[in-house]
């Protein structure tokens, strides 16, 4: 995992990320959550870095919230060329896959959040059945 606390460094890092306009400059820090591919050596583990990294990132976001800080996941859905430019600029080795960016900061007293309607349980849950 990598962190940018300095505002100039944070802003430079966020210039590589699409989707933070309007709030990125307000973040206290930006973290890059990575997963080291050297810990996964079997073909059956080919997706495990993203699963484990995503679980780690969610747990980290929950920990920040529990500590009274705001945390915002920011996806890293970039092509290989863009990914390599970021890696070269910030010295992130090829054996680490970038899972997500995580913005962290103090929460203002009042703020707006996006809200989506909650789907009904039956819309997202199915009971497993034999064929």
From TrEMBL:
It comes from Leucobacter chromiiresistens. Residues 20-106 form the Nitroreductase domain. It holds the Pfam family Nitroreductase. This is Nitroreductase domain-containing protein. It comes from the Bacteria. GO terms for molecular function: oxidoreductase activity.
